Amino acid sequence: MSYTIKDVAKHANVSVGTASKYINGIFIKEKNSLRIQSAIEALNFTPNALARSLRENKTKTIGIVIRNLIDIFSGVIASDIEKEMTNNGYGVLISNYGVSGNEAEAIELLMRKHVDGIIVFPSGEIRDYGKINKENIPIVTIDEYVDEACDSVTMNNYSASCLAAKYILQNGHRNIAIITGEISKNVFLERYLGIKETLLNAGLKENENFTFYDAIDSKSSYKITKKILNGKFPPTIIYTTSYYFTVGALMAISEKRLSMPKQISFIGFDYNFMFDVFEHDLTSINQNHEEIASAATKVLLTRLSGDYKTFPKKKVLNVDFCEGGTVLKI
């Protein structure tokens, strides 16, 4: 015989609402929890995994906090994390802070769902995760080291920009445009310092041989690139320090119908299959999304097992420099 939640509620002598709360993972009075669980077992009713796990005070779910559901970088990595966590018996809830712009609210929402741990793509607004981690659950940040209240998985961003700078120098460029982001964020600060210090150490001068331009997204990068390409002395090479800056710059280059690398050389950040429309493979700094997801998942699973021996873990991954055909030797 197939039983319903009404049968469970009747058997446990509680309301349907109370039974529903228990089965959907919402904490209720202990005496009611025991009654409902007893009824579930007596009727051989199969609740979802979330409800069963409440006996252990674990929901077997984790949360992922991202800026935007359509963000390429976080979206791809979140998908890989979901696969790995599912293989380890965990469900995944995703909280998007792009609409409200409030990362703290997105984290608190997941905590109210009683997730066992959270992986965050930081916005930069939170500088102390310890203050908002009221449930004292493990938190892992990706792409940005924030504080010692959580683990982190980041890329060697300084080294990445050093590689780009050295390649630019090797190919003889001395008129360089660099599109970077807000240096208040560690990820952009490191990429900024990597190329700046390498070029300065090679004897180049800022604002004479190389110039920095601040962007916030693909649209601003497009406008910046369009402006510098239309200038009196356009650069011989452009280096962008994020995927979205790369997209915006390439749109401007394409609109102006410039041939890479004959008319303009280019080094971007992160590869996307859309870049295959260009005549030559893009010379770029690439982050291994699968490796990032795997590292973050491994750290979180370690914490979920109760192992805090290496806390806080600061995992720094290397990037790949892919030599395409968009840099001309001059």
Model description:
This protein folds into three domains: 5-56, 434 Repressor (Amino-terminal Domain) (Orthogonal Bundle), CATH 1.10.260; 61-155 and 289-318, Response regulator (Rossmann fold, 3-Layer(aba) Sandwich); 157-287, Response regulator (Rossmann fold, 3-Layer(aba) Sandwich). The model has no long low-confidence stretch (mean pLDDT 88). By secondary structure, the chain is an alpha/beta fold. It has helices at residues 5-12, 16-23, 30-43, 49-52, 72-87, 103-112, 129-132, 157-170, 186-201, 218-229, 243-255, 289-304, and strands spanning 61-66, 91-96, 117-120, 139-142, 151-155, 176-180, 210-214, 237-240, 265-269, 283-286, 314-317, 320-322. Strand 8 (237-240), helix 11 and strand 9 (265-269) form a beta-alpha-beta unit. The protein has twelve helices and twelve strands. The strands form two sheets. Strands 2-1-3-4-5-11 form a six-stranded parallel sheet, with helices on both faces.
Give start-end ranges of low-pLDDT stretches: none
What's the helix-strand series?
HHHHEHEHEHEEHEHEHEHEEHEE
Separate helix tally: 12
The helix content, as a percent range, equals 40-55%
What is the total tally of β strands? 12
How many domains, in number, for the residues? 3
Ends: how far apart?
80 Å
Q: Which fold name corresponds to the CATH topology of the largest domain?
A: Rossmann fold
Question: What layout of secondary structure does this protein have?
Answer:
Blueprint: H1 5-12, H2 16-23, H3 30-43, H4 49-52, E1 61-66, H5 72-87, E2 91-96, H6 103-112, E3 117-120, H7 129-132, E4 139-142, E5 151-155, H8 157-170, E6 176-180, H9 186-201, E7 210-214, H10 218-229, E8 237-240, H11 243-255, E9 265-269, E10 283-286, H12 289-304, E11 314-317, E12 320-322
Parallel strand pairs: 1-2, 1-3, 3-4, 4-5, 5-11, 6-7, 6-8, 8-9, 9-10
Antiparallel strand pairs: 10-12
Helix pairs in contact: 1-2, 1-3, 5-12, 8-9, 10-11
